[in-house]
Amino acid sequence: MNGEIQQASNIVISARKSLYENKEIDFTPSKHVLSIQFVFAPRLFGRQITANSVCEWFNICLQRGLKDIKFVIPSNRANRHLLGFANTSQCAIICFWKKGSISRFYPAWDFDREKAVWRVRYTEQYINKNTIVENLHFSDRTDEFKKTLLDIGKFAKEIEQPFFSDIFYSAYASLCDAENIDDANIPQQLPHDLKAIYFAVDKADVFGAMGSWNDSPPCCADEKGLGREYNELSNQLLVQLRYHLMYVANECWNRN
């Protein structure tokens, strides 16, 4: 899974659990991230506030009247080849405030070449209610997800890509046997009943850069006259991955 997508969704999962349990947020950044900073939009006649950790940011959000929090990401992209690069995901953390306003924190990742780590900066922007559905509700559509994984797994075999076929079938198997999921990449804050879906999303997210599903598979598909099928199945997979990541992040620890 793309690092910026993983981080933003995991922050939301942690924040939702904290809101649900009325406890301090528990979030540990990746070892590849040196710093996470949040820049709040200035309020009327107020100064700009910056938080230098997820915990500090969340405490400020609570003081400002945070009511709910969501993770959003476009469910489809015109150019899948960009998905492996930083600052291309267009994901955001959406905050709903008790006074009725809505804002989003969108990330910018900057690589420190000297230390070989990332510095992340989230910037807040208030948005018009008409530009987003206030109640972002998602339902479990794992049957659709399973079918897509089986279809693209079979297709990967047809174009002689057994490595990717194994990945897709493995993700499918995790959805069928959730009890045997054991992976360090799954957020500890996630409820057990959603861990298999998160695992499948992470496992089947093959839209990176070199050596990804965007690399040699489209050429292999074109050689067999299956270029259209490759694009259709790839689009279906991307939609399922992003929809179910939003489902996991936004429906966990639901207080309604």
Overview of the structural elements:
This protein has about 260 residues and is an alpha+beta fold. It is about 40% helix and about 15% strand. The chain has seven helices and six strands. A six-stranded mixed β-sheet has the order 2-1-6-5-4-3. Strand 4 (about 90-95) and strand 5 form a beta hairpin. It is globular. The chain starts with a helix and ends in a 5-residue tail after the last helix.
Question: Which class best fits the helix and strand makeup?
Answer: alpha+beta
Oligomer: single chain
- Beta-strand segment tally: 6
Strand content: 15-25%
Q: Order of strands across the biggest sheet? A: 2-1-6-5-4-3
**Which regions contain 5 or more consecutive residues with pLDDT less than 50?**
none
Helix content: 40-55%
Form type: globular
Helical segment count:
7
User: How confident is the prediction overall: mean pLDDT?
Assistant: 91
Main sheet attributes: strand count, strand direction, barrel closure: 6 strands, mixed
Please write out the topology.
Layout: H1 3-21, E1 33-39, E2 50-51, H2 54-63, E3 66-72, E4 92-97, E5 102-112, E6 117-127, H3 142-158, H4 162-176, H5 192-204, H6 217-223, H7 227-251
Parallel strand pairs: 1-6
Antiparallel strand pairs: 1-2, 3-4, 4-5, 5-6
Offer a quick outline of the entry:
This protein is an alpha+beta fold and 256 residues long. Helix content is 41%, strand content 17%. The chain has a six-stranded mixed β-sheet with strand order 2-1-6-5-4-3.
Keyword list:
alpha+beta; 17% strand; 41% helix; 6 strands; 256 residues
